Amino acid sequence: MKKYSTVTRKGQVTIPMAIREKLDIDYGEKVEFAVNEHNEVVIRPVKVSLEDVYGVLKNHKPAGTHEDHRRLAREWAGEKGSKRG
User: Fold this and answer.
1) Across the chain, where does the E strand assignment appear?
2) Buried (b) or exposed (e) across 16-30, using 16+ Cβ within 10 A?
């Protein structure tokens, strides 16, 4: 599958919808960029497990639905990612 995107002045690109759907990337989730041995860029979704979130929230297990927990995990991953870089 080939899709194209244009680089903006800020160095940003939009990941085409077909690629986001194929990789199961939702709004607000993180992606990892890597360059392989052939100088090709590889994009991988960064998925956070509920266990990661519960590890941070040892003393507080959030109430709510599974989807609520997934949202909390995405929010936590966003905060953790912003501290790294």
Assistant:
1) 30-35, 41-46
2) eeeebeeeebeeebb
Structure tokens at 47: 């998925």
Give 34's DSSP letter.
E
Q: Model-level pTM? A: 0.53
Task: Quick: pLDDT tens for 18-34.
Answer: 999 999 998 888 899 99
List the chain domain ranges.
1-45, 48-85
CATH architecture of the domain with residue range 1-45: Ribbon (2.10)
Structure tokens at 49: 């497990």
Q: Which residue type sits at 5?
A: S
The answer to whether the beta carbons of residues 15 and 5 sit under 8 Å apart is yes
